[in-house]
Design goal:
four-stranded antiparallel beta sheet; binds flavin mononucleotide; FMN; alpha+beta; FMN reductase (NADPH); 12 helices; 248 residues; NADH Oxidase
């Protein structure tokens, strides 16, 4: 075991932060780590917006009523972004839009690039003792996020990352075990998957009943199927298409 592995294995989302801004050198280290990740075809098809304006943070927090979007040490919005590529393509009168940028493949590339950057930022923050929580709930009002940050075409907000000095102790949440997510040489049988999930449900029931805060009676399978059954964001597909992403 080394420090990197310890940081990774001790990950837990933090949702209560001290109201103290992160130091500039901490923010710079986190951004540098984000910028250093792998990127498909060297495209670097992502950007980040650091949000420090209290009014903008308040408006972002109002989308999902999550106080930690407003009260934290720093907030970064992650974007899938081909705007800079489009500027240069237009200058050189090259059609990169219909050839690639609009395609599902290139939307995937941009979201993967942004996610790698964000996860590097998260691990860097946690290695410095700074807590982090991804914020996907901004997707509930993409138009508000779009207007708040004047996002041009070919830029889609994906998620935020709330960062700060932790003001809570959180248990580590159990994750699916190795046999449930790592298969060798071919995809696992349904039988194997069912048996792994039954065991994991038992682990999760025990976890929810024994954790320090917000104890409850729940199973992983019930929880996620309920979520997948209920959640629907009708505005997301047209929003992404209006930004000229994922249209073919
Ligand atoms: C893309 C993404 C979006 C997320 N959005 C939210 C969010 O809006 N609010 C929140 O409280 N947690 C959010 N989370 C955190 C997850 O709930 C959390 O990672 C998961 O429950 C596992 O817990 P852990 O991070 O403590 O291991 C998000 C995580 C990811 C990866």
């Amino acid at each position: 075991m080394n420090d990197t592995l310890t940081t990774l294995l001790e990950h837990r989302s933090i949702r209560a932060f001290k109201d103290t801004p992160l130091k500039d050198e901490e923010i710079n280290a986190i951004i540098d780590a984000a910028r250093s990740g792998s990127t498909s075809s060297y495209l670097m098809a992502y950007s980040m917006i650091g949000v420090t304006d209290p009014e903008k943070k308040r408006k972002l927090a109002s989308i999902s009523n999550q106080s930690y979007i407003e009260k934290n040490g720093h907030f970064i919005l992650f974007l899938a972004d081909y705007h800079r590529h489009m500027i240069h393509a237009n200058k050189e009168e090259k059609d990169i839009l219909s050839k690639n940028v609009q395609s599902t493949e290139y939307f995937m590339i941009a979201t993967i690039d942004a996610t790698i950057a964000a996860q590097n930022a998260t691990v860097a923050a946690e290695s410095l003792g700074i807590g982090a929580c991804y914020i996907g709930s901004i997707k509930r009002d993409m138009d508000l996020v779009n207007d708040l940050f004047d996002l041009p075409e070919h830029v889609v907000p994906l998620f935020g990352l709330a960062l700060g000095y932790p003001d809570e102790k959180q248990d580590i949440k159990p994750k699916l075990p190795k046999n449930a997510v790592y298969f060798e040489n071919s995809y696992a049988s349904d039988e194997q998957q069912k048996s792994e999930l039954e065991k994991f449900d038992e682990t999760i029931t025990t976890y929810y009943q024994s954790r320090q805060t917000n104890k409850r009676d729940d199973r992983w399978t019930t929880q996620v199927i309920e979520k997948l059954h209920n959640q629907r964001n009708d505005r997301l597909t047209p929003f992404v298409e209006e930004k000229k992403f994922n249209t073919r």
